[in-house]
Amino acid sequence: MSFNLIGLRTVAAFSARKLLMNRRWMLVMLLGALVALVMGYAATEDGANMDLASDLMVILLLAFLLPVLSLIYGASMIRNEMDDRSIVQVITAPLDRRISYLGYYIGLVMVLCLLITVVTVIGGLAFLMFSPERTGGAQLIITFIALQYLGVMVYSALFLFIGTLIKQPIYLGLFYIFIWEGFVTSVPGSIGMLTIRHQLQVVGSELTEFGSIAWTTGDWAVSILALVVVTAVLVLAGAFVFRQEEVA
């Protein structure tokens, strides 16, 4: 048991450090600057308030940055190591591959939570700096950070699984983000609920009173349960696939 815990911690720390040292952080900086620019500019417009800030955070962070960063980091995390065979040292170690996969997942979640926090704080402060209304701004920033942490858990599980399962995961990931979630979420009726984004917005409706997200209908407790169950299923499925994976 202690050996598995030590191995889990080692893989998680190693994978997190490797992600942080990757040059993709330059892309994160550009996306963060874009979010700050848009949020800051919107705050200077007439009628700028916390409702506008909330709607912008839904579009820029919840609908775009969160899934895109999860895809960029998650889909390539294990797949790149398979392609360059650097994963051999992991799969040949005495540690159970399922534990190693869980370590990869934990490392991915930690890194994405850090990046999401930085970008959200920068974007939120950019809005508050230029907005004439600041009441509830700090609470709104904290709310969206917490909401995205929940999203990171699900999206990371999804894209890490896809990256382990197929050789070109980026295309399926883009299809899910921009076609499935981008289109299906806006479709009236129950089918629009079959997306991670919608379930996050249901949870968000319980956490904030600002913006259109506050009017999202649904049971937030059921949404949290659904997201947790989906996360668990995806992590277990990914661990199973990783255990059976053969590296040429």
Task: Describe, in short, the structure shown.
By secondary structure, the chain is mainly α. It is built from nine helices and no strands. The mean pLDDT is 88.
Q: H/E element string?
A: HHHHHHHHH
Please give the count of helices.
9
Proportion of residues in helical segments: over 70%
Distance between the termini: 31 Å
Summing up helix and strand content along with how strands pair, one would put the structural category as mainly alpha
DSSP strand tally: 0
Largest sheet: none
- Report the radius of gyration as a whole number of Å: 19 Å
Bin the strand percentage: under 5%
Q: Give average pLDDT, whole number.
A: 88
Contiguous low-pLDDT stretches (5 residues minimum) are none
Description of the structure:
The longest helix has 34 residues, at 50-83. Helix 1 crosses helix 5 (97-130), helix 2 runs parallel beside helix 5 and helix 3 (50-83) runs antiparallel to helix 5. The protein is an all-alpha fold. It contains nine helices and no strands. The protein is globular, with a radius of gyration of 19 Å. It has one domain (2-244).
